[in-house]
């Protein structure tokens, strides 16, 4: 090969390497590293579509007139101090009071039970422990209408000493709420491990003292988060409460909204729904901060702790 041919070959190689950027341009739909604009747009459209009815309902709770479809100006009259408002309607106040009492008592009962169950299942080492874990998760995967109808039949036919009303509603809410506490607290127990507790035992602490002084402070953010989730779930529950509420003196906010929306509703119902929405949102927000505090202590996210649960 002569020097001229070698020079020509080198020139061809340099020209191939110097392909202009326009020739190497890749269409956006073929670039795997592009920003997911389409997916992000669909996601935001779905979020807006889901929130739009809620925002409209909240808006008309501040309507200056009785219409729930025509905006007549801003006013807070449907919250207090006007005829037909929440503050002046005994039935609305009663439903709000029942929901808050039922949610609070459910938290006080379900949270300790769920914590004790989580600690017990974490320490249970046998072949039957996996079966017990699966049974404890049944309320989470069972449809609410099945749980509600089953509890209704049990209280009416078997446990007749427990009357329909607040006692039956409390037991029903505790039944499906314990599983939420179990999942959150047991996942946190898996991430903590047994090292801290065993170190306290080596230093002379009794089992109960090690749990009280070492384990419970580490679990406190997760316990608080699970309590807030239980409270929000109890406030929003309709199906189980509908089966077990008994008479009108035990009616809760979701049942009141369902029964009154078919009549001639006023924006007072929107105001009642807004209060329920704000209470549930605050509970979930506090639960988020609780899980965030637990993550800072353990250095792991709640999702990673949940993954260890299985």
Would you write up a description of this structure?
The chain has 310 residues and is an all-alpha fold. The protein has a single domain (90-309), classed as MetI-like fold (Orthogonal Bundle), CATH 1.10.3720.10. The protein has 13 helices and no strands. The protein has helices at 3-17, 37-60, 90-123, 128-136, 138-141, 144-158, 166-192, 195-202, 207-236, 239-244, 253-260, 267-298, 302-309. Helix 2 crosses helix 12 and helix 11 (253-260) runs antiparallel to helix 12 (267-298). The longest helix has 34 residues, at 90-123. The termini are far apart. 28% of the residues are buried.
Helices, strands, pairings?
Elements: H1 3-17, H2 37-60, H3 90-123, H4 128-136, H5 138-141, H6 144-158, H7 166-192, H8 195-202, H9 207-236, H10 239-244, H11 253-260, H12 267-298, H13 302-309
